[in-house]
Amino acid sequence: MLLSIEHLRVAFTVGSSVRQAVNEVSLALEEKTKTAIIGETGCGKSVLAMAVAGILPDNAHSRGSITWENKPLSEQLLKTIRGNKLSLIPQNPLGSLNPVLTAGFQVSEALARVRPALNKLALYQNTLELFHAAGLDQPQTVYHSYPYQLSGGMAQRVLLAAAMAGTPKLVLADEPTKGLDLDTRNQNVLLLHQVFENSALLLITHDIEVAATCQSLLVMYAGEIVETGQAEAVLTKPLHPYTCQLLAAHPSQGLIPIPGLPANMTKLAAGCRFADRCALLGKLNASQSQLCLTKHPALNKCGVTAAVRCWHA
Ligand SMILES: Nc1ncnc2c1ncn2[C@@H]1O[C@H](COP(=O)(O)OP(=O)(O)OP(=O)(O)O)[C@@H](O)[C@H]1O
Ligand code: SF4
Ligand SMILES: [Mg+2]
C-alpha cells in the first residue's frame, strides 16, 4: 500500500474554542490509483491533504496514523519524500506562488531540491522542459514572468510543472481547475492525468465532471467521509442522502440547493451530522428519525468497494 490513513483527526484551536476539521478519516491509496474527493466548502478536504503533506498550521492538532509504503509517515520521512515522491499542488495557485519571484525561479528551486547536482544552466533548461511538459506554450516568457503576469490557468500549469520536478508516487491536487473556463479546465485535467499517469492522484474538487475522471470517489461532509466507492457508481447511483443532494445541487443536475448551512464544526451534533439538512429524514418514521438524531452513524461497507455513513441509505 502506498498511503494508508487510519482514524485521522485534525482540530484547530481558535481562541478558546476547538474546531474539528477532519474526523476519523481512514483511507488507503494503492500506487497509480486516481481518487477524487468532493464535498462542500469547509468539509475538511484541504486539511486532509495538508495533514498528508505534513504542512498543517501551528494551531492544528492531529491524531491517528498515516503510513507511507507501510512505514509511519514521520517528519523525517516527509522531509525526504516531499517535493520528490510526494507532491502537493495547492489550492489557489496565484496565492501559492511567491509574488516577488519569477515563476521560473520558483520551479527551478523545486528542481534544485530534488536534483542538487544540476548546474545553473541545466536547471534553467530543465525548468523550461518542465514548463513545456506542463503545457505552457512559451516556456521562456513564463520563466521570466512574475505571478501577477500569469493567468489562473497558467499559474496552475506552473504548479503542475513544480509538482513534476520530482518523480511523485503520490500527487495531492487541491482544486486544480478552480476558476478556469471549461476549455482550460478540460485541458488541465487531461494533462494532469497524462503527466501523472504513473502516480497515485488524490484530486480534490468541487467539479463533478472532474471527479468523474478518477476511478474512486470519497464524499466528505463535516470532516468525515460519508460515502466512498467507484466514482462512476457514486456519481450515477449515490447512496448517501448528502451525495444525492450534493449532486442535485450541481448545475447540470437541476441546481437544487441543499437547505441550511454546513455543520458547525465547533459544536458537532451527537447524531448524524447531516441530520438538519437531510431530505430523507422527514420521510422516516419516528423511531428511524430518532436514531438519526441521537446516534452517530458509522461508515459501513456495502458491497466490495462502497461504504456509506447513514442509518437508512
Ligand atoms: N488555520 C486554520 N485555523 C482554524 N481553522 C481552520 C484553519 N484551516 C482550516 N480551518 C477550518 O478547517 C475546516 C476545514 O477546512 P478546509 O480548508 O479543509 O475545507 P475545504 O473542504 O478544503 O473547503 P474549500 O472547498 O472551501 O477549499 C474549516 O472549518 C476551516 O474553517
Ligand atoms: S443517518 Fe439519517 S439524517 Fe443522516 S443522512 Fe442518513 S437518513 Fe439522513
Ligand atoms: Mg480547500
Task: Write structural notes for this entry.
- The chain is built from 12 helices and 12 strands.
- It is α/β, with parallel strands linked by helices.
- A hairpin with a 2-residue loop joins strand 4 (60-68) and strand 5.
- The chain has one domain (3-308): 3-Layer(aba) Sandwich (Rossmann fold), CATH 3.40.50.300.
- The protein has helices at residues 45-53, 75-81, 93-96, 103-114, 120-133, 139-143, 152-163, 182-195, 208-211, 231-236, 241-248, 286-294; strands at residues 3-14, 17-29, 34-38, 60-68, 71-72, 86-89, 170-174, 200-204, 216-221, 224-230, 300-302, 306-308.
- The strands form 2 sheets. An 8-stranded mixed β-sheet has the order 6-7-8-3-9-10-12-11, sandwiched between helices. The chain has a 4-stranded antiparallel β-sheet with strand order 2-1-4-5, with helices on one face.
- The chain binds adenosine-5'-triphosphate (ATP), iron/sulfur cluster and magnesium ion.
- Residues 12, 14, 19, 21, 39, 41-47, 57, 59, 91, 265 line the site of adenosine-5'-triphosphate.
- Magnesium ion (MG) binds at residues 45-46, 91, 174.
Chart the SSEs and their pairings.
Layout: E1 3-14, E2 17-29, E3 34-38, H1 45-53, E4 60-68, E5 71-72, H2 75-81, E6 86-89, H3 93-96, H4 103-114, H5 120-133, H6 139-143, H7 152-163, E7 170-174, H8 182-195, E8 200-204, H9 208-211, E9 216-221, E10 224-230, H10 231-236, H11 241-248, H12 286-294, E11 300-302, E12 306-308
Parallel strand pairs: 3-8, 3-9, 6-7, 7-8
Antiparallel strand pairs: 1-2, 1-4, 4-5, 9-10, 10-12, 11-12
Helix pairs in contact: 4-5, 4-7, 5-7, 7-8
Bound molecules: adenosine-5'-triphosphate (ATP), iron/sulfur cluster (SF4) and magnesium ion.
Membrane topology: Peripheral membrane protein
GO cellular component, one term: plasma membrane
EC number: 7.2.2.11
